[in-house]
Specification:
The chain is of the alpha+beta class. The protein has helices at about 10-20, 40, 70-75, 80-90, 110-120, 175-185, 205, 245-250, 275-285, 295, 305-310, 325-335, 395-415, and strands at about 5, 25-30, 50, 65, 95, 100-105, 125-130, 130-140, 140-145, 155, 160, 190-195, 200, 210-220, 225-235, 240-245, 260-265, 340-345, 355-360, 375-380, 385-390. The strands form 6 sheets. Strands 13-16-15-14-17-18 form a 6-stranded antiparallel beta barrel. It is elongated.
């Protein structure tokens, strides 16, 4: 009987185990936490954004890094496939705004339970609280694992590493797989945070801490004034800078903080062009001619923004509306259409939703996830240098690459 060892009981690891089980092969899944899918539990704010129901070809537009590498695995195990898999395993799903797919129950635990039932039925041997220290090799091939506990060794015909990245280390994603793969000669591309809040310069954001804005347009420009990101949606001001869906998506495009400088430019009134907004300002100033600008501005922006917007427009708060000059009105318009905040950098990788970077895709077979360097070794999930936008796309990467790795291991075993 052939044996498959899988390191990591997250999304990719569980899927790899489900795919590798069967045909008389023995599958062992090693997870250092007390339960499977610990990171899956917290995805989608505890609801688990399983995948995205967009057309399959649209997936690649939402992959930020190495989308072409994912063609085989994405088409081999699609969003419809994972949805069908979970429904069959007793986890009914629903589709929400932005084609995001969630369990009907809004409980990520139902996704984990579905996998647990599946793995139990398939006879997968799950080893919890078992941390793998290193991979075993003989004659250049991967032949097993060494466990931390007592240095025990386990021999396998095929080993799949699906240990995750470095985001949310409390869930067990502490970069173990990078070290294991690097030790055997794999290249690890610079690991950085992605889908992460951004720290900003100055005190503007702390002064507006807690303020959430909807239906604004966020542009992020680099030092050369080139737009790196532009999208409409929601963002949040925090004590350290900017967060919220727009900002998380923007962060995926900002890869050169060491070489470049970025600034956020927020259009607070995207529904109005400059001409219409200027007409609106003229009307507000005229109708409230004898009021202080700190009171007039309340009709234009939320309360917490009033002192910031007036300061950036160089308009004293107590200035009467009828005393506002044409130049001051122009500066107010420019601030409303382009509130600019310099970005210092991303928050720590521990706060990122996903990790960008990882094992170089050129060293992995995209169809089977087999290592091109070490026979017997397969790699899957966030460990690989692939990442995508928020919205279920990163979990789909985990399901698809995990499935490809499990089936790839099975294919090699059946050819022996």
């Amino acid at each position: 009987m052939s044996r498959v060892g899988i390191i990591g009981g997250g999304a990719a690891g569980m899927m790899a185990a489900a795919a590798a089980a069967g045909d008389g092969h023995e599958v062992h899944l090693f997870e250092k936490n007390e339960k499977l899918g610990k990171k899956v539990y917290i995805t989608g704010k505890g609801r688990c954004n399983v995948t995205n129901a967009c057309p399959q070809e649209d997936f690649f537009q939402n992959v930020v890094t190495n989308g072409k590498f994912l063609y085989s695995s994405f088409y081999g195990f699609t969003n419809e496939d994972i949805m069908g898999f979970l429904e069959k395993e007793g986890c009914p799903l629903k589709i929400e705004r932005g084609q995001r797919v969630f369990p009907v129950s809004d409980k990520s635990s139902d996704v984990i339970r579905a996998f647990s039932r599946c793995l139990d039925r398939l006879g997968v041997k799950v080893h919890l609280h078992e941390e793998v220290e290193s991979l075993l090799t003989e004659a250049g091939s991967c032949v097993g694992i060494r466990l931390k506990k007592g240095g025990r060794e386990e021999r396998f015909d095929r080993v799949i590493v699906a240990t995750g990245g470095l985001s949310y280390p409390s869930t067990g994603s502490t970069g173990d797989g990078y070290a294991m793969a690097a030790e055997l000669g794999h290249t690890v591309v610079d690991v950085k945070p992605s889908l992460v809040p951004l720290e900003t310069e100055g005190d503007l954001c702390p002064r507006m801490q807690g303020l959430a804005l909807k239906n604004v347009v966020l542009k992020v420009k680099n030092r050369k004034n080139k737009v790196q990101f532009q999208e409409q949606g929601e963002l949040l001001f925090t004590h350290f800078g900017l967060s919220g869906p727009l900002v998380l998506s923007a962060s995926a495009h900002l890869r050169d903080f060491g070489k470049d400088a970025y600034r956020a430019v927020i259009d607070l009134k995207p529904a109005l062009d400059e001409e219409k907004l200027d007409a609106r300002l003229v009307r507000e100033l005229s109708e409230n001619a004898n009021k202080d600008m700190q009171n007039v501005a309340g009709a234009l922006v939320p309360r917490l923004m009033i002192p910031v917007v007036l300061e950036l427009s160089s308009i004293p708060p107590e200035r009467k509306a009828h005393d506002v000059t044409k130049g001051e009105r122009r500066r107010l318009l420019e601030t409303l259409k382009g509130l600019t905040i310099p970005i210092k950098g991303p928050r720590p990788i521990a706060e990122a939703i996903v990790t960008s970077g990882g094992i170089k895709v050129g060293e992995i077979d995209p169809k089977t996830m087999a290592s091109k360097k070490i026979p017997g070794l397969f790699l899957a999930g966030e460990l690989i240098d692939v990442d995508a936008y928020t919205g279920g796309f990163n979990l789909q990467i985990a399901w698809a690459t995990g499935r490809a790795a499990g089936e790839g291991a099975l294919l090699f075993l059946n050819e022996k």
